[in-house]
Amino acid sequence: MTRHIVCGPEGPLRARVSPPPPPVRAVLFDFSGTLFQIGSYADRIRAVLPHPPGEAELEEILTDLEAGLADPAVIDAQRGRDVSPEAHRHAFTTWYASAPALAPFADTLYGQLQAPEHWVPYADTEATLARLTADGVALGVVSDVGWDLRATFAHHGLAGCFTAWVHSYEHDSEKPDPQLFRHACRALSVPEEETLMVGDHPAKDGGAAAAGLRAYVLPAGAAPGSQRGLDAVLRLLAPAASM
Asked: Model pTM?
């Protein structure tokens, strides 16, 4: 019988021989902030307003959006945001409407989220996915989101890289629920211990470790279309890819 491993503050209580970790055969990616980023808020606001805003007006709107992040109604709307399409729309439109100038256009701004052309892959997304695919690494997407992402990936010619898609709203749950990661692993027919989760949220994406996966968390805040640092994923897998 396998004994459950009990750990103290410094590590396992009982001495044990740990085998080397198995090679990574699958990688799961988060969507927003990891592989893609939506266009800038300034550009999106210019696209919905009926007149070209001046710099002072645009800055005022952005300041109102920033203040809205602390609005109790906006904060309340974020709870359970990604468990259903309805909750997702409510969360975002409530925030957009917290800026008075954007209130009439909250639904239009939300529509931008679902429009593939508004999303920009990071500069190193395509090359990273192509290399992993060429190396035979199975790929999946695990995202807290309120709509199906496949159209966005297809629009940018990247959908064919993936064979597993786990959208939180389809499972009435959000990361870091271990079942979301395990569902993706089952879809790829790769065990959790041979799978790497890559994202930009320490708690949500890093939480994959609780499901038995390895996790790599990128720092948040990269600009749309910039280099994301995804080459680090290739370096992590380099020993496995050469085996």
From this structure: 0.91
